Amino acid sequence: MSDTTIKIGVLLQLSVTIQTRDRPQALSACLSSLAAQSMKDFEVVICDDGRQTSLPIVEEFYTKLKTTYIRGQPVSLSAARNACIKEAKGDYLAFIDDDAIAPVDWTGKITQNFTGKKIFALGGMAYPAIAANKIGQAASFLSSGEDAPKTDSQTAFCIRSCNMAFKKTALLRAGMFDEKLENTEGTDMALRLYRMGFSIFFDPQLSITRSQRSTLGGIARQFYRNGKSRVALLSKFGLEEKTKTDVAVMLAMAAFALSIPFSLFFFAPVIFLVPLLLVSRAFLSAIILLAKGKSNLFIQLFGACLVQDSSFLAGFFAGLPAAFSMWRAGIPGNP
Fold it and tell me: What's the whole-model pTM score?
């Protein structure tokens, strides 16, 4: 994975890992937040697989942070995470995205959780930063209503890749991150550990702030990847591990299936009914959100809802062939 590795520091209990790709300004802000941590007994492991190196940014923090820098090949986010695992010296590994900002007590809360509880995986909240334009503000508003989990399986499903931590031995026992996944690799890891009997904990007070997509194109790409990864998770772990998103996808698929005989009976093309379903859902979602005091963002809320749902559904269906292959290969005795 790595072409060049630069190491600074000594053996530590906690390793904070960052996977970065062509976002030097965001990486600088992330490292600044780590340098300001009140609990400073940790190292930082950075895997950079972008087109341009971020080493000049990393070098600015050599006097402030104990750092390992890896220059890797652009394979996948999971591959970059695995490269960090191999280089990390700590017994516990925390993962934060390069566009995230950690509050000053972030590493301290991670250490406290692992010290005070017999857990092997830890997750926390991820709040969207305030966006500069209305599209970004609408997208931030849509993603700000997530609840803390109430059951063990929900806890595993709520482990966010941008804000998670694991005991290193558990990661190695599970075989590290699945490099075939385009997204939700943290959820996949947490579900595997949950199935293996490892204890998982979600701390709603363990939070980070991350940047929000501010264009419809960026939102579409993000949710397309989410859709492909979600169907992969369902193929690996089954439908008993439902979340609100999975239920919505299943309902959308059922509506799609029911629209076929309906359209044949009324001689209406299916292609017109599916967009109508998505538009109706986006309109209703925007109306509901308006009741929460965002009347100035109606058009942006409607557009963001429509793009999110349609992109997620497109990714879900696009990921079905690969997910079916994974499902067949993963079930013992299945020919």
Answer: 0.75
